[in-house]
Known about the structure:
Elements (H helix, E strand, L loop, with lengths): L1 H33 L5 E15 L5 E13 L5 E13 L2 E8 L2 E3 L4 E14 H13 L1 E16 L2 E18 L4 E10 L1
Protein name: Late embryogenesis abundant protein LEA-2 subgroup domain-containing protein
InterPro entries: NDR1-like (IPR044839)
Keywords: Membrane, Transmembrane, Transmembrane helix
Amino acid sequence: MAKAFQSNTVVLRRFCCLKWMVVMVVCAAGSMVLWPWSPELKIQRMNVKRVRVHPLPPVGADVWITLSVAVKNRGMYWLDLAEVDVGVKYRGKKMGHVESEGWHVRSWASKDVDGDLQFSGLPSTEVAHLLEDMAKGEVYFHTVIEVAGQIGFLTINIPFTFKTILACEVLVNTKSHAIILQHCIYKD
């Protein structure tokens, strides 16, 4: 009798532990699905369209760059992007930035945000480096992407705003207009 009671107790303890483990796994999975994730950012395309050199003083250059940033929503909430700002530097010199606003990204979807950057007044010392890098076919740029917005579910705006900042070093092939290398770090 005592042996049967002990085996029933062991079975009940195991069942209780199994029940709690199932509840914890379901709660963890539910929180993963319901958690409002920040968007995932990636530079899809970056292209130096044109460089025009000014030989007369002040010597400098105008640079035109097109770029595309993929904003991927990793959650079940939709995103309203109030601002997408991409800043571009070449050899530590700020070339400028592109701002865009009013984008909507559905849940578990992605959206490409395109922009054109025109920068006038690249210093003459940097013009030589840029032309040399373009002749080699590879140009390094430093970019900072800032995305800010609000989330919502179905038709309800949720009072939760987010801001995501991604700093990248991008190596662009100027002949095939492809991104060769992209090293990015998310910042707080």
